[in-house]
Amino acid sequence: MESSQHPSTPNPASKKSGDVEVLVYAAPKFWPFMGIGALLGVIIAFISAYSGEESAEFTRAAVAGFLSVGFGFVGVTLACIAFLIVDRITRKKARRALAVPMGAAEHQ
Q1: What is the pLDDT of residues 17-27, one digit of tens each?
Q2: What is the DSSP string of 56-76?
Q3: What are the pLDDT digits (tens) for 21-71?
Q4: How many Cα neighbours within 13 Å face the side chain of 20?
Q5: Could you tell me where the DSSP H helices lie in the chain?
Q6: CA-to-CA distance for 79 and 42, rounded, in angstroms?
Q7: Are 21 and 8 in contact (CB under 8 A)?
Q8: At CA 66, angle to CA 64 and CA 72, rounded to 5?
Q9: How many CB atoms lie within 10 A of CB 14?
Q10: Is the dihedral angle over the CA atoms 29, 9, 98, 102 positive or is it negative?
Q11: Which of 8-12, 61-65, 66-70, 104-108 has the lowest mean pLDDT?
Q12: Is the pLDDT of residue 108 over 60?
């Protein structure tokens, strides 16, 4: 998980000029969730294609390809939901911190 910092409403009484109050939390990475969801969907598609009865119209590889698209989409969708849940949980565990700029202000 990567650490994210989001500016929050500064408290003028407890900070020096230039300091910024931020929320710090461990944010999950998006793409590993999507990759795992798609991979699990494709694995389930191959299992269901090769464990069922063989069709007279389509080969097992064609059925596996068709099912991979559908189950892959479902896997990515479920992974998106899981990502949002994990992100919401980690945001609840966020803590406030005071960010102090280091060096000269370049963008003022």
Answers
A1: 678 888 888 88
A2: SSS-HHHHHHHHHHHHHHHHH
A3: 888 888 899 999 999 999 999 999 999 999 988 888 999 999 999 999 999
A4: 9
A5: 30-51, 60-92
A6: 13
A7: yes
A8: 85
A9: 9
A10: positive
A11: 8-12
A12: no
Which residues, in sequence order, are CB contacts of 95 under 8 Å at separation 6+? 23, 24, 25
* 84: Cβ contacts below 8 Å, ≥ 6 apart: none
Place of tokens 């300091």: 19
Contacts of 44 (CB under 8 A, 6+ apart): 71, 75
- Residue 24, helix vs strand vs coil: strand
Q: Please state, in angstroms and rounded to a whole number, the distance separating the CA atoms of residues 4 and 30.
A: 13
Q: What do you get for the CA distance between the two ends of the chain, in Å?
A: 31
Can you tell me whether residue 105 is helix, strand or coil? coil
Contacts (Cβ under 8 Å, ≥6 apart) of 11 = 21
